[in-house]
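Deviations from the work plan: none for this task. Representative record:
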Amino acid sequence: MRKVFSKPASLSDKPFHYCPGCTHGIIHRLIAEVIDELNIKEEVIGIAPIGCAVFMYDYFDFDFLGGAHGRAPAVATGVKRVHPDKMVFTYQGDGDAAAIGTAEIVHAAARSEKITSLFINNAIYGMTGGQMAPTTLLGQESTTSPEGRSKEMAGYPIRLTEMLATLEGTVYAARVSVHDVKHIIQAKKVIKRAFEIQQKKVGFALVEVLSTCPTNWGLTPIEATKWLEQNMIPYYPLGEIKVPKEV
Amino acid sequence: MSKILMKGNEAFGEAAVLAGCKYFFGYPITPQSELPHYMAKRLPEVGGVFLQAESEIAAINMVYGAAGAGARVMTSSSGPGISLKMEGVSYLAGAELPAVLVNVVRGGPGLGNIAPAQSDYFQATKGGGHGDYRLIVLAPSSVQEIVDLTAKAFDLADQYMNPVMLLADGILGQMMEPVELKDIKPNIPAKPWAVNGMKGRAYRNLIVSVHIVAEDNEKFNLTLQAKYDKIFQNEVLYENYKMDDAEFVMVAYGSSARLAKGAVDKAREKGLKVGLIRPITLWPFPSERLAEAATTAKAFLTVEMSLGQMVEDVRLAVNGVKPVYLYTRTGGMVPVVKDIVVELEKIVQGGGK
Amino acid sequence: MTKVTFREERCMGCELCVHACPQRIVTMAKHINAGGFHPATVVQQDKCTGCAMCALMCPDVVIEVEREEKQ
């Protein structure tokens, strides 16, 4: 008997603290699988966010640095400039990357920092209690948009990946989803590509991952995957938006 | 080594480079911009990196990353920019990372102006950022001292795993004086805790400032406090100027202390027994020296370019034993020696504020 | 010959694996685990093809899949 599927070595054995059905766990696993496959566990430095994934460093078995809300791309810049040959990645939610840390991610991209940036979009603030995110869809209810997000009050949801793709410094920009097996397999390929681009020192590589938040969406895990597919993907289309010729 | 003429802002930079600082992240603001200009030219010569960040917030977080990665790293700014950096300073203190910040203080509050001031004393010494932490604060009073204290700042940061601030002002940043770049050496200790990839290590390194359980956070804060107590015991620096027979003691730091020295000399010409205690470390503050002076002095006069900030520490140290008076200019205005002497004369005659 | 193992103590009972399994052989157990969840389990191991779709979908790395090596 040969193990065809088991916990990747780069993941620690600590059980995740996420809510049942939250897809952060899937994304964590995919990152660990990619790091194992590229054999870079001893080279990699992760930058943890603020938000539900604030304790993500507990789930990985390699170097990690946790800083302030939204500043992960700046922290990653500091690390990468000191260790240009190491592999540095950031993991940020929609509040972290698309609200409080907008300046930091825009300028890390503009400088084409040779890092891998993972942007987890679940259209809501999870940890603080289901408030409206910059990526909350029009009409979507949250604890700070109880009647649904209105464009008159809160404007429009941000397509961060398309926005960053307009910058010369962003060499790779893609959006994937983890709501079903087919898309999870695709997501892993894309995340792996974003790390390979860093290995080749091409420039700033961004992957947006559409993720679920059953708890704050008020849905069962299964319903949440359906909601993502039916509501998020039409507004946040999947695919590779920008691919460098080096890959 | 012979002396060379250097501008204060540039002296910060050269001393940092000699102390082994290879990374500088900053954002332009007057009156400190000559420092980033200098680093932009100088750091590539030593294989380092100068990076102009998109904001002070980004700059201090780049400092956080570089410090965590194990490098000697520096940033500089002035009042409004330092306010923005305070988030990162709290994280540096909480994560126990060594880094050096320069604040070339300007007039405030708000946008204020670009003239010299000392009004960021509270921000530097009493917190500035959130949480129970301390920043080591060094206050040079000459360009030579800028050189010496900058090198010391990096050593203190590494020794105590704590951010260190050099608090100057527009006068010190802009003035030129001859300096000796004595034999500053990069005394960089090993940093086995740095995040630089696990290769060659059996364990992974983790740098965070979160302690989600209150009991754990209290325990951690108490270890920080023990460290701060040690700094307070070991690192206090001050200068005594004509203190041997002084009956009236001025207390001033930085640029104000230069003027206070002039006032000591003038007052002594008039036969007044005046001396000066110049705090060099603003945190830890030389409280014990002031308490000791209070046993023999008749009165104290604090001279500062802020409306009574350091005077609170002087009063805490003197603890009501003797009267503590205050002479201030603010908003970018600089004290004048003859006005300080007039104030001293009033105190001697039993007046003063 | 395939074998699928559920590390039941890690399971949070989200049921995503139940819906991911093309053979429909994953079910939720009647008992509860230490975390207070009904853990997922496989009742008809012999029907498992070892496709690992349950494991791919699981957010909590509960599932291990083993397959006989082809000679």
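Residues 214-234 of chain B form the longest helix (21 residues).
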